[in-house]
């Protein structure tokens, strides 16, 4: 089969399309014929070595989120049958690229996958698992910390995958949502139903005081500055420590896979209760150029690699 591996640590040029042995399903596993795999900033961070827990020694395969069909089933696997449509998240923080999703076939634990409803296509589905679980779990930190329904939450990066889901889930939770959108992309964020939209280039101080920030970009201190005393900031990547004298709580949200949660949220996307969007698709064999496109910025939606 064809796969994409990072042959060294570095920029997009380290990604190589190569022939790899087709995987076999072990106990509790299935082999997924990958139809779509999402390109995440986390994939780019992996190739440059800028990830939590330290760099992964090459060669390895990037790729967290896959959607496709079950090609074969391993021993003691009863959850899926051959031909089932599935979507899921390879817990890359555990696999460290063995496997990764940038391949025609992936041997995946059945627990990593959930059924893919017929109403949701492979490409759109591949944008969901990492982004929506990160958003949901980050909002859970906000809720457990202090906030009640009706409190004001600022979501940075609401034009993106995590931020867009966070804004929508916060609305479901009854929060008043102020969402930061990329310049020129305000209408899509407004259409999510948020209460107020602020442009990326605007001064966040104009937002006024908020109870909490879901810092999906993250922008760091500029977002934290608008949080009221003893509020909370949840960021999706490490940020410098906040000045402690205001008692603002600072939390880092790193993804953890939750199969039951993922099945529920995928169902919500399929039913139209949560929205996602795809900016562009590219063939798996153009993974290096795909990384260049993401690094260049300006995409409105996710970039998805397609297979077959």
From TrEMBL:
Its EC number is 1.-.-.-. It comes from the Bacteria. Keywords: NADP, Oxidoreductase. InterPro entries: ADH-like_N (IPR013154), ER (IPR020843), GroES-like_sf (IPR011032), NAD(P)-bd_dom_sf (IPR036291), Zinc-ADH_QOR/CCCR (IPR051603). It is an enzyme of class 1 (oxidoreductase). Residues 10-305 form the Enoyl reductase (ER) domain. SUPFAM superfamilies: GroES-like, NAD(P)-binding Rossmann-fold domains. GO terms for molecular function: oxidoreductase activity. This is NADP-dependent oxidoreductase. It comes from Actinoplanes sichuanensis. The lineage of its organism: Bacteria, Bacillati, Actinomycetota, Actinomycetes, Micromonosporales.
